[in-house]
Write a structure and sequence with these properties.
single chain; alpha+beta; Jelly Rolls; five-stranded mixed sheet; four-stranded antiparallel sheet; 2 helices
Length: about 230
């Protein structure tokens, strides 16, 4: 093999390393809580054990997020809840589901055992009632940042799970839930989330490869002068 062909072969190999994509990774975290959500208070679960999850040592950025939530008993239309991360991500999971207007009471079902995904077929705010039984299945998060006392089904949905996309997953994730009406106490059984990450682009590898190619080309040009 001539030296020109050797340099071209090395060039192809280095560029392959620089542009080759590594696989995505999945991480799952959960907490078992089994505690009542304080009734008729806006302070809700603030400071309650089990409502935070610490994530550390994960490389790459979030490219997809799902959330799992298991709540027993209570009155679904009373509940407001969100998930927030140190990374700046924020999503409203529940906002008085079924509440159409001021002083509306929302759905009267007792509990949730659901998965939240932006790609689900239905908006949980409009799930339609479940005959008093706990709601199950996979749903889009509520996403409405309106005050729970004023929320309408027609409000814009600006706080979806996609707010976590392209952020680092590391830091503290906090689940907040509040029950905004008297009686019908709900219990937070457990909760968790799963996120998918994609490594950062191999910029350094590419620059190193490009620098190596440039140096090889310069060496060959200098050699031709003698």
């Amino acid at each position: 093999m001539t030296k020109v062909k050797l340099i071209l072969t090395l060039a192809a190999g280095l560029l392959l390393v620089a542009t080759g994509a590594r696989g995505q990774s999945f991480y799952t975290y959960s907490n078992s809580v089994n505690m009542d959500i304080p009734d008729a208070t806006t302070t809700g679960t603030s400071g309650m054990p089990g409502t935070t999850i610490a994530v550390s040592g994960v490389e790459g950025a979030i490219s997809g997020l799902t959330v799992f939530l298991d709540i027993s008993g209570g009155y679904n239309g009373d509940l407001f809840g969100y998930l927030q991360g140190d990374n700046g991500g924020y999503t409203v999971l529940l906002n008085r589901v079924g509440k159409p207007a001021n002083f509306g009471t929302g759905y009267a079902d007792a509990g949730f055992n659901v998965t939240f995904s932006d790609g689900a077929a239905g908006d949980i705010h409009l799930y339609g009632g479940n005959g008093g039984y706990p709601l199950t299945g996979t749903w889009q998060p509520d996403g409405r940042q309106t005050l729970p006392q004023l929320v309408l089904a027609t409000d814009p949905r600006t706080a979806m799970l996609s707010s976590f996309d392209n952020l680092s997953p590391n830091g503290t994730w906090t689940l907040f839930l509040s029950d905004l009406a008297n009686e019908n106490v709900s219990k937070l059984v457990d909760w968790g989330f799963e996120f998918e990450t994609v490594p950062e682009p191999a910029t350094i590898q590419f620059l190193a490869a490009f620098g190596g190619l440039a140096a090889a080309g310069a060496w060959w040009r200098r050699r031709k002068m003698f």
